[in-house]
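Justification of resources, computational component.

The compute hours requested in this renewal are based largely on the per-chain cost of generating structure records like the one below. Each record pairs the submitted sequence with a full structure-token output. That output is archived, and it is also reused by downstream analysis tasks.
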Amino acid sequence: MTSFRIALIGFGNIGSGLVRHILEKKELLAARAGVPIELVWIADKEFDRPRGVTPPPTAKLTTNWREAATAANVDAVVELVGVGPDGKPTLAADIARAALGAGKHFITANKGLIAAHGGELHELAAKNGALLLDEASVGAGIPIISSLQTGLAPDRITAIHGIVNGTCNYILTQLDADGSLTMQKAIADAQALGYAEPDPRFDVEGNDTAYKLVILASLAFGQELNVGDVALDGITRLGPEESAYAKANGLAVKLLASATQLPDGSASLIVGPAFIPATHVLAGVRDVFNAVLIDADPIGQTMYFGRGAGQGSTGSGLLADAIFAAKLQKAGAPDPQPLRIPRGTRKVTTPDQAEHRYYLRIRTSDANLAQQAAAIVGNRKIATEGPSQAFLIDRISQAALDKMLGKLVAAGIPSDTICKVRFALHQT
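The structure output for this chain reads:
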């Protein structure tokens, strides 16, 4: 083995950054891997537009991804095609199956692919003596998945709490800094800076975070979980009232992803806005940064922090996987991955059953409607300011809360004026 040979499929923003990193850090990569990291194929739909980097002469360019994924001179395939217009990772799944079926190691940053097909692809990798490596799918270059695979391998993971969407964390940081800022203006500012997509819904409605939580929980708990197992809510209904309440009560507002393994082995997964103590370590995670807090036995708590997106961070995660695979292949060692997503193994506490403490805020200028709302919620009002009324609800199931929200809407309160925020991490 004179080099570790990579086929890159997807030569976009992250792909071009990866090529640049390979070219600029080739001596470091070779020293860490034990052999040179060589780019031998690049596949993309077209090569006409400038990427800001020139592929090395060793790389053959092709518009036929299958040719690159199954070529005899390829040791590992790096997939960076993302999802299709329908939001599904159909092409990525086809690439993964072709590469792993041909015995190639498969490296990806595609969270949608792993959340939807992780169990199947782990099984296919094992069958063909290959590795499925996905460090960059959660937190980009933050070494959270490798930590689960190695440093935390002796431990039983009991809980995961994470801030894993930089777009939402940036928006919430701005709302915290400016109490008069609306959600719409905060999203627009994030778009102007390139932190939010032109269509930001996948981020701000919590879907991106849910995919990442499913990957972490599936690996940590040894189950094939799916996005449908997540009680999901986004940040779009948050407003100045929530920022003011947080500041007045020593809290911070975060889009928090939480997975808990209950004593019976079942998993409970929730993603949504949460009030956490301002003194908690996760409250200090601001702007576009990500962090994941792990509770495990016997090690206790550990935390992993860094930039969760971008060329540099994602490229670092991808190349960390490449170095791992290269070292393993050079040594001729068996696959040491202690954690896989096992197919067909799933035990969950459904979102309807999970109970949490909630803050609930409505807006209405109609006094009679406000009185009806208070009666529906149970007269738990804690604050009134202008047209806004806030309530505290202790330990309610998602099913009961949804029923309560349905009654509020039926009474005439528009659903987009109702905001719910759970309380979390107050015992940590």
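The chain has three domains: 4-148+310-331, 155-307, 355-423. The longest strand covers residues 251-261.
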